[in-house]
């Protein structure tokens, strides 16, 4: 009898060999093995049947190619040299932290038939090598990729529908080449935009310890791919750069506005701004143009309102009466979405329509509160006339609230948590605009020659609006936490929650009764929790520094009760006097300080907090120099509050910050995670104190 033995090919699949007889033909050997099969020393069929290989597919493991010796040597060589930026693009280079493992990890773009990489044919060999060695031509494993794409359409797309979701899914699920494909440059930007919104486990599957590191790395790859010139279609460039406008850091504060400027110019080059009156280019339709232009408009207004900057798309550049995006523009994707049902998609389209109307409504207000350089130079209008214009802008905002916001409050939240996210975020945008109007009204009142009774009534109305807006914003933050969507907020929410937190802190500090103080401190707990969540996804040190400095300035400028009574600006006792314990001129200077610091472009934050590890030895020398206040911040403070005040203030409060100094704190150990869980439990215990 022939003897038989088992000769394993894989740990789970034996191969039968007949001794003394005809042996079964050995399977063809693959020229390359994936990293997992190479590590396990088993046969890999990836190069024959395609990746993922059979072993990884059956075991449900990510399948990534093992880099060749030639590749790894080239990567090591280039990793020692600075990244060379192509001539195209003038955006500042950020400080990225990456390693060779994360660069070479992942599947090649060419392994996905749905991706259009035809633009790479135009690039030189040197650029291709650079893109490959920097990981720009690789994407995460299929599991991580699916998670990123899913979260993009769950939380980015509803309020920024740049592309047709139905068309995207048709291309993405395609297993054979032949369609138009998805631009690799745009796809890279989509992965970046979704990166802060996925669970941290997805970032770890991509080779990153934290979401912040994953976001930085995906941005770097998308930026390099854009700068290479691989994409030439103006509409695709506009879509890509709009998504990249979600990037900003503590030291690169104007990056979002720069990307937006590129997006607007590219959209105009593709005639998106006149989508309603010109024939669509080949391969596109008027709805595609309309999507791009209205997304430019939305991003422009939100960046202006959050960063206190002039709008880039002025009313003379588009036709205001044109209708914004509606369900009719999104009808196809509503029936073919892979992340939402029809009812949810319909409700989200109503939120989007409200957002488009808000972008139009807030235009006049933004032109008054944050005027362009040209209008500022030619503006010699009397403050009284400006007040009248601001009153009309305020009425327009109130009309928008009645028509578009009130009927959405709490409606259809049961369908999906993203409805609570989008509706409450839109409400915060509105409350921010409302606060901007009230604060600018106070500025204009200080510019009039003599105060009248009507001015005092306006001050009282402004104070009432501010208190209401602060309370409403705190309520929305509470709902984010309750509905479990606080970790899905976009980066714009960081700026939009800053001023309410500052003013609420002022109220808490100057509260005269224990009850008022406790109520405001409980509300502040919500902002502390939301800032903790932000710090693991976005750079928040600059915002927190501004907050601490603003509070210090406020404490020094606050008046005693006797001094306030002598100013004549204390109103009736039945109105909350807390905010106006600050003299009106000091309060206005505080507001101007915040606006100037927020809108100032690309100034470094506190140097001590930005020292590299090799420079830590310098910190002792820096400390010996005395309180360190950034030059740009000091100059603004000297302008608004005087030079002598700066020398009497301690900077210890400004330099001290605990949970979120840098990205390293986001990768806390298990003990810190337990502390976070305890802190979150305390947050939940505080929520009932705020009422329903």
UniProtKB/TrEMBL annotation:
It comes from the Eukaryota. Keywords: DNA-binding, Metal-binding, Nucleus, Transcription, Transcription regulation. The keyword Transmembrane helix does not apply. GO terms for biological process: DNA-templated transcription; positive regulation of metabolic process. GO terms for molecular function: DNA binding; DNA-binding transcription factor activity, RNA polymerase II-specific; zinc ion binding. InterPro entries: Fungal_Detox/Toxin_TFs, XnlR_reg_dom, Zn2-C6_fun-type_DNA-bd_sf, Zn2Cys6_DnaBD. The keyword Transcription regulation applies. This is Uncharacterized protein.
């Amino acid at each position: 009898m022939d003897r038989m033995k088992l000769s394993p090919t894989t740990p789970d699949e034996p191969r039968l060999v007949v001794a003394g007889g005809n042996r079964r033909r050995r399977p063809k050997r693959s020229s390359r093995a994936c990293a997992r099969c190479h590590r396990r020393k088993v046969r890999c069929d990836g190069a024959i049947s395609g990746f993922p290989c059979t072993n990884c597919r059956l075991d449900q493991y990510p399948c990534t190619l093992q880099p060749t010796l030639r590749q790894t040597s080239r990567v090591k060589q280039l990793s020692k040299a600075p990244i060379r930026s192509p001539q195209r693009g003038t955006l500042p280079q950020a400080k990225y932290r990456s390693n060779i493992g994360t660069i070479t990890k992942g599947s090649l773009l060419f392994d996905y038939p749905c991706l259009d990489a035809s633009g790479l044919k135009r690039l030189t060999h040197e650029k291709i090598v650079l893109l490959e060695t920097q990981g720009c031509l690789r994407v995460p494993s299929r599991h991580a990729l699916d998670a990123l794409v899913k979260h993009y359409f769950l939380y980015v797309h509803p309020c920024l529908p740049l592309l047709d979701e139905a068309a995207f899914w048709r291309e993405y699920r395609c297993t054979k080449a032949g369609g138009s494909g998805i631009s690799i440059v745009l796809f890279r930007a989509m992965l970046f935009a979704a990166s802060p919104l996925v669970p941290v486990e997805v970032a770890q599957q991509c080779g990153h310890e934290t979401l912040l590191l994953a976001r930085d790395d995906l941005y770097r790859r998308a930026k390099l791919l854009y700068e290479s010139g691989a994409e030439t279609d103006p509409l695709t460039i506009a879509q890509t750069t709009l998504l990249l406008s979600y990037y900003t850091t503590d030291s690169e504060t104007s990056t979002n506005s720069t990307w937006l400027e590129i997006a607007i110019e590219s959209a105009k080059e593709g005639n998106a701004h006149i989508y309603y009156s010109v024939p669509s280019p080949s391969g596109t339709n008027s709805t595609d143009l309309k999507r791009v232009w209205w997304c430019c408009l939305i991003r422009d207004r939100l960046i202006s309102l959050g960063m206190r900057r002039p709008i880039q798309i002025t009313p003379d550049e588009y036709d205001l009466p044109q209708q914004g995006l509606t369900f009719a523009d999104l009808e196809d994707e509503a029936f073919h979405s892979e992340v939402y049902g029809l009812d949810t998609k319909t409700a989200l389209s109503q939120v989007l329509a409200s957002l488009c109307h808000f972008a139009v409504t807030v235009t006049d207000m933004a032109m008054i509160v944050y005027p362009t350089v040209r209008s500022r130079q030619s503006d010699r209008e009397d403050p009284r006339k400006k007040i009248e214009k601001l009153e009309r802008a305020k009425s327009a905002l109130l009309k928008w609230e009645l028509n578009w916001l009130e009927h959405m409050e709490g409606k259809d939240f049961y369908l999906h948590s993203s409805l609570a996210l989008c509706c409450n975020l839109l409400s915060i945008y509105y409350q921010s605009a409302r606060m901007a109007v009230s604060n600018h009204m106070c500025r204009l009142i200080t510019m009039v020659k003599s105060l009248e009774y009507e001015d005092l009534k306006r001050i009282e109305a402004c104070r009432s609006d501010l208190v209401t807006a602060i309370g409403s914003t705190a309520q929305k933050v509470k709902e984010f936490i309750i509905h479990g969507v606080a970790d899905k907020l976009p980066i714009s929410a960081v700026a939009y929650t800053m001023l309410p937190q500052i003013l609420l802190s002022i109220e808490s500090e100057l509260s005269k009764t224990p009850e008022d103080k406790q109520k405001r401190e409980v509300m502040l707990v919500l902002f502390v929790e939301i800032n903790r969540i932000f710090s693991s996804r976005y750079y928040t040190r600059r915002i927190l520094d501004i907050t601490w400095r603003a509070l210090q300035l406020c404490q020094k400028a606050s008046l005693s009760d006797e001094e306030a009574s002598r100013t004549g600006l204390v109103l009736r006792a039945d109105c909350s006097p807390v905010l106006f314990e600050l003299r009106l001129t000091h309060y206005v200077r505080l507001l101007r300080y915040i606006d100037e610091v927020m809108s100032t472009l690309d100034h470094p934050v506190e140097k001590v907090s930005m020292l590299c590890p090799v420079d830590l030895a310098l910190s002792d020398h820096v400390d010996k120099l005395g309180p360190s206040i950034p030059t740009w911040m000091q100059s603004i403070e000297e302008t608004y509050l005087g030079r002598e005040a700066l020398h009497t203030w301690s900077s210890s409060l400004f330099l001290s910050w605990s949970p979120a100094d840098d990205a390293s704190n986001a990768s806390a150990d298990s003990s810190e995670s337990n502390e976070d869980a305890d802190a979150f439990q305390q947050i939940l215990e505080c929520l009932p104190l705020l009422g329903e």
